Amino acid sequence: MRKMKLMTLGLAFLTVMSGVTSCATKQGTGSLAGAGGGAVLGGILGNIIGKDSKATAIGAAIGGAVGAGAGALIGRHMDKVAQETAAQVQNAKVEEVTDANGLAAVKVTFDSGILFATNKAVLNARSKNELAKFAGVLRNNADCHVDIYGHTDSTGNDGINIPLSNSRAQSVVSYLKSCGVPSSQFKNIVGKGSSEPVADNSTSAGRQQNRRVEVYLYASQTMVDAANAGTLK
């Protein structure tokens, strides 16, 4: 079942404005980022929107300041990326979050049960069909950098879970590359093991949620430069 959460940054902005001062303006969903306090505010919004503190760590340092207008362009662009992803990939959760620079980003979460057999890192046929569609999204948005993180539940120990989660992340990357996504688009591929649960590991349903692969799409320097030039569509 497709799950998509496109949340309006204007509401989050009103929530945090009492404690944060910024000259940034909101011109579209996911578009709040600007000069000065934009990166700080973006980190707060990342936690509110993505409900995931790790969202604030996504994205490399960018060269030069990003003004409010450029941030708005990136926000609208990433809205389109999120919508395209949700339309193409049926069995993943799509969310809009913010990166470490306070810019809009997209988080795509695949349940590991859809991708892999238990304790395995070999993609099944169903997952390859989904990932082939996702590869098309990545190829269409070559100005997005991509991070991939593998996660497990707490069953077993780190000696098993970290290598397994890393192998699963690498399997996803390898297949996306085989579908034509350039290697240069991938920046961080990491197995996190059971260190970042999103649900209660004491229940079967919680462990299922924790077994996942997260993919983050965020602005590359090329995208930032185009936004600063006013040419990003």
By DSSP (H or I, 4+ residues per run), the number of helices equals 8
Instruction: Compute the separation of the termini in Å.
Output: 30 Å
Average pLDDT works out at 80
The profile of the biggest β sheet is:
6 strands, mixed
Assigned CATH superfamily: OmpA-like domain
Succession of helices and strands? EHHHEEHHEHEHEH
Number of domains: 1
Overall morphology = globular
What is the helix fraction of residues, given as a range? 40-55%
Query: What is the fold named in CATH at topology level?
Result: 60s Ribosomal Protein L30, Chain: A
Radius of gyration: 17 Å
Strand content: 15-25%
Unreliable segments of 5+ consecutive residues: 1-56
Strand order of the largest sheet: 1-2-3-6-4-5
CATH architecture: 2-Layer Sandwich
Write up this protein.
- The chain has 233 residues and is an alpha/beta fold.
- It has a single domain, classed as 60s Ribosomal Protein L30, Chain: A (2-Layer Sandwich).
- The chain has 8 helices and 6 strands; from the N terminus they run E-H-H-H-E-E-H-H-E-H-E-H-E-H.
- It has helices spanning 9-16, 38-50, 68-88, 112-115, 125-140, 158-178, 204-210, 221-229, and strands at residues 3-5, 93-98, 104-111, 144-151, 186-191, 212-219.
- Helix 1 (9-16) packs across helix 2.
- It is globular and about 50 Å long.
